[in-house]
Amino acid sequence: MTDEPVKGPASYFPSIEKKYGRPIAEWQDLVRGKLPARHMDLVAMLKDEHGMGHGHANAIVAHTLVAEKG
User: Fold this and answer.
1) What residue segments make up the domains of the chain, in order of their start?
2) InterPro entries under this entry (predicted)?
3) Residue 66 CA to chain centroid, in angstroms?
4) pTM, whole model, 2 decimals?
5) Which residues contact 70 (CB under 8 A, 6 or more apart)?
């Protein structure tokens, strides 16, 4: 077992939960509820409707879309 740091979009998750006060699963459910939609449309939804910063919104959308494909 290694203690390597989390990389990629998931590395933002602790700060997203702290800043916006909701668990990542809730944000992912919001994104899934808008599918099918384009990546940047989903990012814009999180930014416009929930006041999320671009990097945080992009991380949630990217991670969610990869999970949906896999």
Assistant:
1) 9-69
2) DUF4287
3) 11
4) 0.90
5) none
